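Ticket #4471: structure output looks truncated?

Reporter: J.K.
Steps to reproduce: submitted the chain below (348 residues) through the standard prediction queue, then opened the result file.
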Amino acid sequence: RDFTINAIAYDIFEEKFIDLFNGAGDIQSKIIKAIGNPAERFQEDALRMLRACRFASKLEFTIEHETLQAITSHCELIKNISSERIRDELIKLMGTKKPSIGLEIMRITGLMNIIMPELLAGYGIEQNRFHAFDVYYHNLYSCDAAPANNYQVRLAALFHDIAKPQTSHGKPDDEGNSFYNHEIIGSKMTYRIMRRLKFSKSDLDTVSHLIRYHMFYYTAEWTDGAVRRFLRNVGVENLDNLFLLRDADRVGNGTKHGIPKTFLDFKEKIVAIIADDNALKVTDLAINGNDLISALGLKPGKIIGEILNYLLELVLDTPDLNTNKKLIESAKEYYNNKESHSTNEEKN
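Returned output as attached by the reporter:
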């Protein structure tokens, strides 16, 4: 076994516990302690160092001094462990009560610098007046605030502001913002980090997508068309996770309490629009490429997608246009105008 708390046996014949390494005492003292020489245990299997971090998060225990020192001294051994095993251990860590405990131990011992060095760039990077913590701790506490049964949202919360150090302009504007487009760059960074750790394509796409769109700011001035465009970009299937991420982000900043009314209003607006069954993507249109080819005498090509995207933009603003007849008329008008414009350019 690796740790004393995992090395307690039970003799079913004698009906008594066998505790050769004082595991019960360590449970009572709330400490994670390696069996015997901790350096030897980690040399046998370096993944045990990450397991210690996970157990600390799961049980909210502290790691015994010599065990912690051994992790620090032997952290480089984690490089010998496959990315897949590290990934699986990180997913388990995301399922604990407070991942921040294990993540912070990873930082202190040097494990984070080897596995996810990008997170360390946020350490000591102060934010605006709406945040009580620096970027690093805000990411960790947002991760804690995300639901423990959804590791994708927890990973999104952990990485959601990872690009703030790279996008910092030093001087905040009137609203205290100075990390422009961090969600776009952060989405790409997260994709690379998770790909390096051999996460599935589904995890890569979902987590990076959530980070890409976590910086939405709904106001009462948003038109129904604006909300439909938001739904088109985010995807209805991602809404629940995106709202969970935003809620974790809010809790993780350490200064905001309660759910803002605008947030609730936005949810109501979305529910109403989804209930109306409006077209949100090209495949929802009452027309397809074959219809355009037939009605306009076109050949398959890029122009078909261009026209369909144009029609979707019309329908997002005016859902009543989503009939085959009206869309054919709009498509003809768009195509004729395009052809006329091209002809005039050739003459000039």
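Triage note (M.O.): checked the attachment and the full token line is present. Residues 1-115 form a domain with the cca-adding enzyme, domain 2 fold (CATH 1.10.3090.10).
Status: closed, working as intended.
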